């Protein structure tokens, strides 16, 4: 039973006008600032449907049982707020601060929570309540009186749910693309058909969770508990898994990266056809497509896969020094510890690829100038790429798109980052001696010392 039904249709809710709400908010602001006349906002059981609460501060407020159907709460501060069993269906909570909020038994069906901060939020079950004659809220005294939190079809792209409690919740068909869910508790949660592309689930608990049909391409799952997790039909191509996880029988029903039946012969034929395709300008041969293929540990020194389709390829620990991969598409790929020393990766698409520990020393990651009427410049795309502890010494990263990339602890000494986009990138602990940053975009970059 959803929280929208949980309080009962006959439960009285006082409808507030925008003016009445504004008066309550003013007193709450005074309360937050310890000013005279300040009163903590008590919006328990109030009907705030369709009202505009964008950017307001309701931290620590009581909104238990409130109806916020289709309310506008973008950028609102709801940290530590009591939203127990609240009705937040179709509410806009984009970029809202919900840290440590109590959302037990809340209904967020179809809500927009993109880029919201939901660190340590509590979305576990709640107890079904009813409105007593004296105005108090009491628990029902019969069995099956549990409210399950619901996030069905919610949009949570790039939301931060680190250490959140989401046990038993309904999260079916939710969009969790690029969401941060480190250490999040998803025990017995229903994540059927959820889109979890590129999300970070490191150290999360998915014990007995249902991930049937979920999309986890490029997701980081290292340290994630998957005991008795249902992965039937789930796509884990390009997902980052521990060796122990890969041995789990739970993954047998998942869609995983494929292995070539005859690696040496098959790869030789693919490369010959690709070379013909390049030399003939696409008239003959065949463009190489190694998407979702596992080539872990292979020696591919000097290989030419320019403009090849390599989406979700697994090349963990492979050797590709001097390889030519210009304009190749390696998005969402597992490229951990790959040796790309001196490789030509100009204009390559490495969006959401995991290059942790990779060696890209002296690699070319600058732009490619496409000779055409428009003289198009094709930039290397490393948006949201994971380059923690990667070697990028003396690499050419001119004009590269590194927005949102993780470069923590990487070696960027002598790298050319002129005109690169470092917006929102994490450069904590990165070695930057001699790096060229002329005209680079560095808004919201973390750990970048600007002279």
Automatic annotation (TrEMBL):
Domain of life (superkingdom): Bacteria
Pfam families per the UniProt record, alphabetical: Pentapeptide (PF00805)
SUPFAM superfamilies reported in the protein's UniProt record: Pentapeptide repeat-like
InterPro entries linked to this entry: 5peptide_repeat (IPR001646), Pentapeptide-BTB/POZ_domain (IPR051082)
Entry protein name: Pentapeptide repeat-containing protein
């Amino acid at each position: 039973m959803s929280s929208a039904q949980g309080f009962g249709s006959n439960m009285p809710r006082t409808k507030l006008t925008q003016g009445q709400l504004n008066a309550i908010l003013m007193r709450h602001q005074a309360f937050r600032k310890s000013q005279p006349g300040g009163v903590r906002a008590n919006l328990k059981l109030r009907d705030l449907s369709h009202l505009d609460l964008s950017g307001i501060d309701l931290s620590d407020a009581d909104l238990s049982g409130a109806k916020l159907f289709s309310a506008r709460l973008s950028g609102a501060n709801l940290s530590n707020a009591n939203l127990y069993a609240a009705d937040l269906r179709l509410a806009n909570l984009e970029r809202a601060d919900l840290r440590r909020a109590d959302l037990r038994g809340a209904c967020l069906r179809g809500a927009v929570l993109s880029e919201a901060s939901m660190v340590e939020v509590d979305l576990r079950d709640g107890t079904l309540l009813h409105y007593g004659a004296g105005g108090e809220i009491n628990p029902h005294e019969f069995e099956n009186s549990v409210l399950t939190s619901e996030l069905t079809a919610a949009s949570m792209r790039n939301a931060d749910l680190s250490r959140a409690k989401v046990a038993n919740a309904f999260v079916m068909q939710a969009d969790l693309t690029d969401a941060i869910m480190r250490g999040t508790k998803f025990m017995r949660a229903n994540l059927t058909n959820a889109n979890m592309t590129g999300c970070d689930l490191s150290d999360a608990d998915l014990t007995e969770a249902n991930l049937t049909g979920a999309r986890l391409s490029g997701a980081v799952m290292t340290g994630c508990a998957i005991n008795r997790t249902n992965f039937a039909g789930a796509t884990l191509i390009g997902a980052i898994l521990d060796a122990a996880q890969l041995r789990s029988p739970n993954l047998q029903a998942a869609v995983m990266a494929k292995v070539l039946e005859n690696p040496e012969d098959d790869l030789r034929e693919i490369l010959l056809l690709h070379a013909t395709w390049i030399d003939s300008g696409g008239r003959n041969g065949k463009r190489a497509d190694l998407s979702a293929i596992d080539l872990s540990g292979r020696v591919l020194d000097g290989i030419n896969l320019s403009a090849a389709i390599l989406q979700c390829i697994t090349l963990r620990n492979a050797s590709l020094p001097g390889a030519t991969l210009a304009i190749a598409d390696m998005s969402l790929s597992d490229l951990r510890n790959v040796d790309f020393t001196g490789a030509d990766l100009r204009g390559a698409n490495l969006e959401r690829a995991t290059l942790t520990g990779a060696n890209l020393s002296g690699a070319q990651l600058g732009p490619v100038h496409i000779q055409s009427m428009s003289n198009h410049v094709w930039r290397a795309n490393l948006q949201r790429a994971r380059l923690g502890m990667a070697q990028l010494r003396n690499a050419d990263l001119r004009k590269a798109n590194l927005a949102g990339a993780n470069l923590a602890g990487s070696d960027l000494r002598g790298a050319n980052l002129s005109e690169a986009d470092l917006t929102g990138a994490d450069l904590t602990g990165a070695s930057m001696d001699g790096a060229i940053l002329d005209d680079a975009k560095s808004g919201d970059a973390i750990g970048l010392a600007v002279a």
